[in-house]
Amino acid sequence: MHKNLRLYKQDYFISDINTVAVEKREHQDPFPLHDHDFDELVVVSSGNGLHIWNDYIYPITSGDILYINYDDVHGYESVNNLKLDNILYTRETLFLSSIIEKYLPKHSAKHTERVWRIQPSYIKQLQPLIEQLAIESKKNNLAAVHLSEALFLQFVILLDRIKQQPNDIQPTATHQLDILFTVLHNSIATSFNFEMFCKDHNLAARSLSRLFKNQTGMTISGYLQKLRLCKAMSLLRNTAYSISIISAECGYDDSNYFSAVFKKETDQTPSQYRAKFRDQTDNSSLITKTNMSVPQ
Ligand code: RM4
Ligand code: NI
Q: Which residues contact 151 (CB under 8 A, 6 or more apart)?
C-alpha cells in the first residue's frame, strides 16, 4: 500500500479541546489525494470540479453536500472557480455526539448516501450559520466549543430537513445531465436501471433521454455500453485478468454475452484484441489480480 498525504487535527483546530473547525475555500485549488484524522462536511457553493473519492470520480458543483469520513481518501482535480466550505469535526469526541449522530450519515454508509445536492437557494440560507460557526470555532474556551457544537448541530439538522423535503423543483437540464453522467460512470461494473434512476432523482425520464440524445448523439444504454467496452479494452491491454473477470468488472454477468458484444462492436474477440497488444508489451509490466488494483 502506498501512503497518501494525511491531514492532522492539530493543523486546523485552534486547540486540543476544539471539536469543530471551519476551513473556507474561496478558490479550492486542485488538492492531492489525502485522508485526515478528522471528519469533514463539504458544502459546495459555486463553480465545479472533479472530486476523487476513494475509487470514484464525481463531478461536483454548487449545492453539493458531501460527508467525508476521516479514513476516506479524497482530492480535487480540474477545478473551475470551485468555492466550498469545509466543516471539520472530530466525530468520535463530540460532546453532543448522541444528538449530532442522529443527523449524520453512518460512518459505514456508501458514498452515494453521503452526498446529495440541494437547491442553491438553501446554500444561501446556510451561509450565515457557517459564518457564525467559523467565528465561534476559533475560540478555545469550553463554552465556545460547546456553542460551536450547538451551531454544528443546528447545521446538520437543517441539512437533514432540507434533504427530507419533497424536491419538486426540477434541476436544470445541465444539472440533470451532470447527475446522469456521474451515475453512468459509476455504473460500469454494476447494473444501471434508468427508470429507477429517474424515480430516485425525481426526474422526467422521457425528457431526460431526449436531452441525453441531443447532447451525446447516443442513447443512454449505447453510451453505457461504450463506457464498458472502453474499460474492457483498457483491462485487456493493461492487465492479465481472465476474460471472465474482465466481463464481470465491466458489468456483464455472462462472459459469452460480453464476448459477443465485444466482437460485434470491434470486429474482433477480446482475446484477439489482447493478443494484438501483447506482441508489443513486456508481459512483466502487466497488472495481475493480486499485485495491484485496477487502474481507473
Ligand atoms: C483542503 C481541501 C481538503 C481539506 C483541507 C482542510 O483545501 O479542501 O479536502 O481536507 O482543505
Ligand atoms: Ni479533505
A: 20, 129, 132, 133, 136
